[in-house]
Write a structure and sequence with these properties.
The chain is globular. Strand 4 and strand 5 form a beta hairpin. It has 23 helices and 18 strands. Helices cover about 40% and strands about 15% of the residues.
C-alpha cells in the first residue's frame, strides 16, 4: 500500500470526522426541535423588543439592599434553569430506580417513537411509562433521595445566578422572588428546587393517583393554573416580573400575562452555559441514594443494557478471585479484570511484616481507621497492607456478605460497652496479635464529605495501640455499590459489575495519642484529628452529620437494623 494512498485515506478520514462532529454538535438534544423560539407576546410590555441579555436580570435595579420587593423571576426548568432541554434522562432514572430494569428497557425501546411525537405528547408518554403503577409513598422518598443529584448536575450556573441567587440571598434583605415552572410532575422537580436551590414557588402538574398508586396521568396546564392563586405565587407587589424561558416553555399564559420581559436563550447561548459548581449550591448535596451512577441518556442507557450480560459474570469472577486467591495474586489479577487499586503510603508507614518495640514485643500498626465509601473498604485496606489477619467491624451488612468475606468480620450492636469489648478482643484474639479495620463514620457517603467520626475506636488507643488513618476514594462509572433504602445484599454485586471501578488507598502517619493535652477528651480529640487528616488528604469537607441523619433523609428511619420508619 503506497504512502500517497495512506495519506489520502487519513485526510479523508479527518474530514469525515470533522463533519460528523459538526453534525453532532449542531444536533438538537433528544425530543428537541432545531427551530428557535421567539418571545411570546406580553400584555404588560409596551413593545416587542428583543430578549434582554441574561446579565440584565442581575442588574442593580433588580436587587435592592432595602427590605422592599425587588420583583419576581419566572424561570422555566427545561432548557432554562437546566442546561439540557431533554427530559428523557429524568424519566429514565424514575423508570430504572422505581420501576426496575424491565420498565427502563421498555422506555428505551420506545425512544425512537418519542422522537417523532411533539414535546407535549412525548412528555405525557414518558410519564405514563415511568409512573403507571408506582406507589405514591415509595416514590415520595425517592424524589428526595435520588432525583436531586441528577437535576443539580445539569443546573446552569448563569441562569441560577440570575434567577435564584437573590432567592438564596433573601437573608441579606433582598426579596426578589423566584418561581420555577415545569412540565414535569411536581413530585419530580419540587424537592430539588425548594430544598437545594431555595426556590420560592413551583408551578408543575400533579400526578393523578388511585388507591395510593400513580395512574401515569397528570393535570393539564389549565387545571394547574386554576387551582393555584397566581397572584400569590408570582408575588408581584410593585416589582418588575421578568421571565427566563426555555426551548419548550410550559405555562405560556404565566409568561404572557405577568412577565414584562422574557429572556429566551438561543441555541448558541445554551451551548456556552456552564454547570453550577457543587460548592455554590445553597444547600450542599451530601446524601443521595439509587444505583444509577451515570446520566441515563439514551446512548448511555443502551450501553448499560448491553453491558449487563457481561457485567454479571465479571462480578462473579472478581468475587471468586477475591475469595480464593492470596492478595499477592488477586490484586494483579483484579487489575487485569478492570478493577484498579492504587496505594499511597506515608514514609512512616511500616512494611507488612510486624515491628518490634523497645521491650522486644511484637507491635503492629493494628488499628486502621478509614472513611467509608463502600462495603469493600476493609478488604481494600487489608489487601493494600498485605495482611489477612485484619478483621472488619461492621453493623448493617447482609449475612451473605459476611459469609463471603475473605477476612473475619464481626457485628457491632450499638451497645457502647459491648462494642468496645468486642473490638478490644479482636485486636488481641491471637497470641501473635490481631488487627482491626474500623469505619468511624458508621455509614457510607458518596460525595466529597466526611461524616462525624465516632470516638469509640479512639478509646482503644489508651492501651498503646497505634491508630493509622487511611484515606479512601472510590470511583465508579455505572452503578453505586451502596444503598440506604434498597437491598444491601446486592451491594457487592452492583459494585463489582462496574466496568472499571477504582480504589485509592492512602495510609497516613499514625496519630499520636494519650499526651493528656486535649481539652475535649482524649478519645474525641483523636477522632477529630483522624477525620481532619483524612479530609486534608482527600480534599473532602468535614461535617458533624451522623448515620442517623443520613437514614432519616434517605430511608425515613434512624439507621437502626430493624428500626421503624419515621416521617
Amino acid at each position: 500500500m503506497s504512502k500517497a494512498f495512506i495519506k489520502s485515506l487519513l485526510l479523508y478520514n479527518k474530514i469525515l470526522v470533522r463533519r460528523l462532529r459538526s453534525v453532532i454538535t449542531r444536533a438538537a438534544p433528544p425530543l428537541a426541535t432545531t427551530t428557535e423560539r421567539q418571545p411570546p407576546p406580553h400584555k404588560n410590555a409596551s413593545s416587542m423588543a428583543p430578549s434582554p441579555p441574561l446579565e440584565a436580570l442581575t442588574a442593580p435595579e433588580m436587587t435592592t439592599d432595602s427590605g422592599a420587593s425587588a420583583g419576581t423571576v419566572v424561570c422555566a426548568v427545561e432548557g432554562g434553569l437546566l442546561m439540557s432541554a431533554s427530559t428523557f434522562p429524568y424519566f429514565m432514572l424514575v423508570a430504572l430506580e422505581a420501576g426496575g430494569l424491565l420498565r427502563g428497557l421498555l422506555l428505551l425501546m420506545l425512544y425512537p417513537l418519542l422522537r417523532v411525537l411533539s414535546h407535549e405528547l412525548a412528555t405525557k408518554a414518558m410519564i405514563m411509562l415511568a409512573f403507571a403503577g408506582l406507589r405514591k409513598d415509595a416514590f415520595g422518598r425517592m424524589g428526595m433521595a435520588v432525583m436531586p443529584k441528577l437535576f443539580l448536575e445539569d443546573v446552569s450556573a448563569e441562569v441560577f445566578q440570575a434567577a435564584t441567587s437573590s432567592a438564596a440571598a433573601a437573608r441579606r434583605g433582598r426579596r426578589r422572588r423566584c418561581v420555577c415552572v415545569s412540565g414535569m410532575p411536581r413530585a419530580m422537580v419540587e424537592p430539588f428546587l425548594k430544598e437545594y436551590l431555595a426556590v420560592d414557588a413551583v408551578a408543575a402538574p400533579e400526578l393523578k393517583e388511585l388507591g395510593g398508586y400513580y395512574l401515569g396521568l397528570v393535570e393539564d396546564e389549565g387545571e394547574v393554573v386554576r387551582k393555584m392563586d397566581v397572584d400569590e405565587v408570582i408575588g408581584d407587589k410593585g416589582g418588575a416580573v421578568v421571565g427566563i424561558g426555555g426551548q419548550w416553555c410550559p405555562f405560556q399564559q404565566l409568561f404572557q400575562k405577568y412577565c414584562k420581559e422574557v429572556y429566551v436563550p438561543t441555541e448558541s447561548a445554551r451551548r456556552r452555559r456552564g454547570a453550577l459548581h457543587p460548592r455554590r449550591y445553597p444547600k450542599p448535596l451530601i446524601f443521595h441514594d439509587g444505583r444509577t451512577a451515570f446520566r441515563p441518556t439514551p446512548a448511555a442507557t443502551l450501553t448499560m443494557f448491553m453491558w449487563l450480560p457481561l457485567g454479571a459474570p465479571l462480578a462473579l469472577l472478581r468475587t471468586a478471585v477475591f475469595l480464593l486467591l492470596p492478595f499477592s495474586l488477586s490484586v494483579p489479577l483484579l487489575a487485569a479484570l478492570g478493577m484498579h487499586n492504587r496505594m499511597i503510603a506515608s514514609s512512616s508507614f511500616p512494611s507488612p511484616s510486624p515491628a518490634i518495640n523497645a521491650g522486644g514485643n511484637k507491635k503492629d500498626n493494628n488499628l486502621f481507621a478509614c472513611n467509608h465509601r463502600s462495603l469493600l473498604d476493609p478488604l481494600c485496606v487489608s489487601a493494600a497492607a498485605g495482611r489477612r489477619d485484619l478483621a472488619a467491624a461492621t453493623y448493617s451488612i447482609s449475612r451473605l456478605s459476611e459469609l463471603l468475606s475473605p477476612i473475619p468480620t464481626f457485628r457491632l450492636t450499638r451497645d457502647r460497652a459491648a462494642d468496645r469489648a468486642a473490638m478490644q478482643a479482636q485486636l488481641w484474639r491471637r497470641s501473635g496479635g490481631g488487627g482491626l479495620v474500623v469505619c468511624p463514620e458508621g455509614t457510607t457517603c458518596r460525595e466529597p464529605f466526611l461524616l462525624r467520626f465516632s470516638p469509640l475506636f479512639a478509646e482503644l488507643a489508651a492501651g498503646g495501640v497505634d491508630v493509622v488513618p487511611v484515606a479512601l476514594h472510590l470511583a465508579v462509572d455505572m452503578f453505586h455499590g451502596t444503598t440506604a433504602g434498597g437491598r444491601k445484599m446486592l451491594d457487592p454485586l452492583y459494585l463489582l459489575m462496574n466496568p472499571v471501578p477504582s480504589y485509592l488507598v492512602q495510609f497516613l502517619d499514625p496519630v499520636v495519642t494519650g499526651d493528656g493535652s486535649e481539652k475535649e477528651g482524649p478519645a474525641r480529640a483523636v477522632a477529630n484529628e483522624v477525620q481532619r487528616r483524612v479530609a486534608e488528604a482527600l480534599g473532602y469537607e468535614r461535617t458533624g452529620l451522623t448515620r442517623r441523619d443520613k437514614y432519616l433523609i434517605l430511608a425515613g428511619n434512624e439507621g437502626v437494623v430493624g428500626g421503624k420508619k419515621k416521617n
